[in-house]
Amino acid sequence: MSRRANLSRDAILDRAIPLFAESGYNGVSMRDIARSCGQSSASLYHHFPDKQALYLAAMKQAFADRTAQLLTLLREDGPADRRLRNLVETLCRQLTEDRTFQRLLQRELLDGDRQRLQLTAESVFSEVTRELQRLCRELAPQFDPFLLAGSIIGLVMQHFQNAGLRRFLPGYQPQHDNPVVIAEHIVALLPGGNQ
């Protein structure tokens, strides 16, 4: 691609997302992103004032479709246990089918940068978290909805964070990699999941 043909903001983000997923925020420079885009670093600054703004936009774009899908499931009419099952199964499928999504999430948690975590929480995950807490209040009003929502996400994430190791542990069976099997197991453990 010619350096003169400037890429759109979305095209830059599409190229930056896998770089951030692979190497993390600190492992990718604006120069790396520009090189991947076939652009000059200056052309990136036309769309983004700095690396942090580009990163946050990349996170929003990477998670936009997934969070929209989760919000749709959480806001459906119908029994809370069905919405829980659909949510957990969808999240398991998303993590299985999209390694970039999974890696971005893991990288951000591992990096642990307080400011980026706060920005990501506020701009990417807050709406889904609020809706998940609302579902938790419906399912199990006796539990703290914040802690229960965190436990649901934690149960799901754990299965994908240790996927490489899991295959070598005693008791492993190939069906343990199936997102539907994982989702059914998680839902069965949760309050209101067996209604």
From TrEMBL:
<keyword id="KW-0804">Transcription</keyword>
<dbReference type="InterPro" id="IPR001647">
    <property type="entry name" value="HTH_TetR"/>
</dbReference>
<keyword id="KW-0805">Transcription regulation</keyword>
<feature type="domain" description="HTH tetR-type">
    <location>
        <begin position="6"/>
        <end position="66"/>
    </location>
</feature>
<dbReference type="InterPro" id="IPR023772">
    <property type="entry name" value="DNA-bd_HTH_TetR-type_CS"/>
</dbReference>
<dbReference type="GO" id="GO:0000976">
    <property type="term" value="F:transcription cis-regulatory region binding"/>
</dbReference>
<dbReference type="InterPro" id="IPR009057">
    <property type="entry name" value="Homeodomain-like_sf"/>
</dbReference>
<dbReference type="Pfam" id="PF00440">
    <property type="entry name" value="TetR_N"/>
</dbReference>
<dbReference type="InterPro" id="IPR036271">
    <property type="entry name" value="Tet_transcr_reg_TetR-rel_C_sf"/>
</dbReference>
<dbReference type="InterPro" id="IPR050109">
    <property type="entry name" value="HTH-type_TetR-like_transc_reg"/>
</dbReference>
<feature type="DNA-binding region" description="H-T-H motif">
    <location>
        <begin position="29"/>
        <end position="48"/>
    </location>
</feature>
<keyword id="KW-0238">DNA-binding</keyword>
<protein>
    <recommendedName>
        <fullName>HTH tetR-type domain-containing protein</fullName>
    </recommendedName>
</protein>
<dbReference type="GO" id="GO:0003700">
    <property type="term" value="F:DNA-binding transcription factor activity"/>
</dbReference>
